Structures are given as C-alpha cells and as structure tokens.
Amino acid sequence: MSILTPIYKVYEWYISRNLNPENMPKHIAIIMDGNRRYSRLQGQKEAIEGHKRGINTLESVLDWCVDLGIEIVTVYAFSTENFNRKPEEVEGLMRLFQENFEGIAKNRKIHDNQVKVKAVGQLDLLPENVRNAINIAEESTASYNKRLVNIAIGYDGRLEILDAIKKIAKEVKEGKLDIDDIDEELVNRNLYTAGLEDPNLIIRTSGEERLSGFLLWQSSYSELYFCDSLWPQLRKVDFLRALRSYQQRERRFGV
Q1: What are the structural domain ranges in the chain?
Q2: What 3-state DSSP class applies to 203?
Q3: Which CATH class, in words, describes the domain spanning 41-193+205-214+234-243?
C-alpha cells in the first residue's frame, strides 16, 4: 500500500462530507481519455493493456455513482474515428467490448442495482459479434428503470445530428410532418439518446480540454470539468473533486 493511500482516504472523507446529496448531478457524461498514454507510461507496447485497466476504472466509477445517488452515466467508449487506429488495437477493443457486454448479463452488481445498459451510436458499423453482445446486455437489463448506463460506441456527435436531420427530413418529405413542427423536442426525439435528459456534468480525463464530438447537441448547458489524471489512474478523490466543482458553480442557462 502506498504511503499516500491513508492521506487520500482522509481527503475522500473530507470532500464527501461537504458534498450536498440534494445537489448531485442526475446525469454525468465521461470522456474516458488516456488509456493509450497509460500503456506507454507503463512501458507496455500494446495499447490494449491500458484499455483493459480502463474497464476496471469504469467499474469503480459506476460503483461510486451508485453510492452517491447519480442515476444516469454516459461514457464515451469508442468514436467512429477510432476505427482508423492500428488494426490490432481496434480488434483488441472489439474483443474487449464483446467480452464485457456479454459479461453484463451475469454481473451481479448490475442486476442488484437495477442498472439498465444501453449502447448509443452507429452500431451498424460494429462487427456482428459485438452487436450480438450488445443485444445480450440490453435485453438482460431492459426491465430496469432505477439507473441507466449509456455506452457511446461507434459514436460521433456530428453524425448523430446529421442522422436526426435525415430522419426528420424523411418525415417532412413523406408528408408526415410539417416543417413548422420542427423544434428542439423533435430533434431530441431523433437523437441516439432519444428521451434522455441532457448531462448536467461532463468530465474528461487526461488533461485534454475539448469535447471531441461527444454529445454536441446535448452538452449545450452542461458543466465541464477537465481532470489531469489519465483514465486508468482516476481515483475516487479525483471524481469527488469534479462533483465538488460542480456543486460550487452557479448554473446558468444562457450567457
């Protein structure tokens, strides 16, 4: 055990004590960045090792969210641009996705906490084995409505908006919809995240300060928090700091 561990535990307790349970964000979105850099820092040639460690971090974060009463978590797992990475890394990620989506059906924590799992994105771009695994995960949790985890995979925010425009344009062309009926609510209903409340807080790890196409429409009024820790190294104290920052802000809708 690191000599710093007891100090961090005390710090976690201190921050937790001062968080207001009534002012928790209902929906947190996370850009899980830094897996590949973590692998390099650890001297590992294969980037997939960082991704494996990142899955452990995600499990911890979901546990923290359950404990803190956060109802919805949306994570950016794989963008459409990620398909351009080295074939061996993409193949390794697809294996991880298959294994972990299939594992959700047997995950006791998921079922004990009644967590609905949903994949959002251009799922038709994914290999058949991954799509089948997603179906297994979604079907095994479909009856739950207490908590929700959205996994953005094969996702791109601009393409999401374009797809919504095409769906709406098709209905206008077919005479099912008048152009004056188009409003924000209609656009929301045609997004991958249809019917979902916008995220209150978006967290990005690894020190990068951009959204990288994540939830472009939905993030209009989200609070943003950028954390220096690489995703596999994220500690509970880092997560609690993000929540503390959120609660200290005066949320404004507009300028």
Answers
A1: 41-193+205-214+234-243
A2: strand
A3: alpha beta
pLDDT tens for 219-242 read 999 999 999 999 999 999 999 999
What pLDDT digit, counting tens, does each position of 182-213 carry? 999 999 999 999 988 999 999 999 999 999 99
State the Rg of the chain over Cα. 19
The helices-and-strands tally (H runs, E runs) of the chain is: 9, 6
Per-residue pLDDT of 77-109, as tens digits, reads 999 999 999 999 999 999 999 999 999 999 999
Model pTM greater than 0.85? Answer: yes
- d(Cα 239, Cα 236) in Å, to the nearest integer? 5
Q: Which of 101, 120, 110, 119 is nearest to 141 (CA)?
A: 110
On whether the CB atoms of residues 230 and 206 are closer than 8 A, the answer is: yes
Q: State residue 38 phi and psi, 5-degree precision.
A: -60, -45
User: Residue 60 is encoded by which pair of tokens?
Assistant: 């911890």
Looking at the annotation, which residues are catalytic?
33, 82
Where does 109-187 show beta strands of DSSP type E? 115-120, 147-155
* Residues 106, 149, 78, 24, Cα dihedral to 10°: -140
